[in-house]
Amino acid sequence: MQWRSVFRGHVRRLRRHPTLVSRIHSDASALPVINIPRSSIYELGSQKPVLRDVSWIVHPSESWAVMSDGAASSHLKPALFGALTGTHRISPPPPASEGGLFPFLGDADAHRYVQMVRFAHRGRASGDGFYDFTARYGAVREEDKRTLRETFFPDIARPLHELAVPSLVKPERDVDELTAKDAEKREKARRKEEMFGLLTEWLQLGRLLDLPMIALSNGQTRRARIAQALLSDPKLLLLDEPLTGLDHKSRGVLVALLQELKKQKSSPHVIMGLRAQDPIPDWTTHVALIKDGGEVLTGRKEDVFPSRFTPATTQAPASSRDTSSTSGYRHRQHGDALVDMKGVTVQYGPRKVLSSVHWTIRANSRWHLIGENGAGKTTLLALVTGEHPQSYTQSSNLRLFDRERSRWATPLLHRQIGRVSPELYNAFPRRSELTVWDAIGTGFDGGFVPKGKRRVGVAHDGTSLAPGSHEEEWRVHRMHEVMRALGPRRWHAHPDQMTDEKFFAASFPALSPGEQSMVLLMRALVGAPPLVLLDEAWAGMDRAMVEAAHEYLRDGGGGLTEEQACVVVSHWEEEVPWGPEHGVQRFRLDGGQGEQIFPTPK
Ligand SMILES: Nc1ncnc2c1ncn2[C@@H]1O[C@H](COP(=O)(O)OP(=O)(O)OP(=O)(O)O)[C@@H](O)[C@H]1O
């Protein structure tokens, strides 16, 4: 595998590093990392347990993953992590006589040494209103100028200022003590710098350090957060879904890095949260599997998943579908060009992110857009949605729905495009009164504010829809149609309790991340727009949700029609709804260049 050679050198360097090896805590404490002998877990202030009779003891030599089994149980994974981070109550509490919840910490402060980093969504939005996620494409505003280095690593790579000149009036013993403390501090800073160097090299952050944070791609930001978390020197690091949004190579590098740290018995002890459909790294020894209903199975992975651990399924992520093969390829009859790029370029100063890209997206085409983190996929799609200011300067090279880009008012363009992206997920308003119906209904206008008496938007010219008009009835019909295909009856653990009507009335911000993703997918599809752009649409979704979405997006699933084109961006082959048998095509961005790599059938 290609990434193996990337990190082989890093592994050698890590092993050669005496300072890093020396910072590694000895295995002297064979005390458990986590000790929950048998307790239930509650939301704070609630008397009803979320998780029942949890027995979870983690020993230092083990590597654990936390997974949820079904649709509703994705709600429950945060509860298990919450028990460790103090957002949930454990009752009865782990006995103090056994060292409490984290026996290996002894008297050390759990708030300081137990850290949680979630990756399912970036959560950049502040407050409950909409924030402008397109800011990163334009001139960077003063408040967004903070670089990655300033934001995440402010105290590293700064000169060490402390002077080793003790005061002459100090008694000798104090001087010795001061010097020893000083030396310790310097040694700590030096080790942190070394670790910083290794992590930035390993996670390929070096050339990003002085870019504004806002300019980083999703995957780049996630890699930076992992480095930041490791550098903050926790003793127990909880990484929830760290592989989501990382490209294939970065996933391999991260899994190898964590394995290497584990082998070195280096701090911190890492526990990963994985989605049910994620591959389990080879070196994971144990799994806490959360079942619908709140039961938690804990044990060796082979015991928890007896059928899953055949040799073939323990391998690193592999494509379930061989898209390089043309056998069984279906030739789709494509329609008119909806998007026609003839040499589009995007440049920030001297830095060319896209360099003369040619790509035509026709009606009835199904695309998988690929490229490493930072390759320019989001940027390319922002040209298509008109959100990238450089889409204007590229207007003569960029025809959208048969007009030059500059001849489209951006809000009108948005009515032609249904889309989902991590940026949109984070930016979507989350006022408590916003219902699921409201959120989906904004899809007809492509906006973010519910409009119209029946909350299914307004007419194309901005006027209200005539009550009972064909258009209004069609929109209401579509609301129910997408809900039938993609709503709770398809993925909820208790569909009898969560009916479509109940779900429509639910508060959007109160939903789990996976449910919110599902609602935003419905929003993208409800208006049956000619072009559908699904950028990492499945983040946070359970297997049942992903399956329902895939079925809908395939021919015959009742979702996409021959008039529509759809582009999926995902780093996971398994997440693409179509295989060659459905006539999927691939477009790859690499080094600013675009190429169609799936063979066009003769
Ligand atoms: N204002 C800017 N100045 C310099 N570089 C920028 C700026 N904005 C974006 N970039 C760079 O453009 C590149 C493309 O980013 P983009 O978000 O399109 O990548 P991506 O392919 O979607 O990545 P990912 O898979 O991680 O989501 C990145 O390397 C990013 O750092």
Automatic annotation (TrEMBL):
Q: Where is this region: Disordered?
A: 309-334
Q: Which UniProt keywords apply?
A: Hydrolase, Transport
Give the ABC transporter domain ranges: 31-317, 339-597
Q: Does the keyword Hydrolase apply?
A: yes
A Pfam family that the UniProt record links to this protein: ABC_tran
Sequence similarity: Belongs to the ABC transporter superfamily.
Can you name this protein? p-loop containing nucleoside triphosphate hydrolase protein
What's the source species for this entry? Trametes coccinea (strain BRFM310)
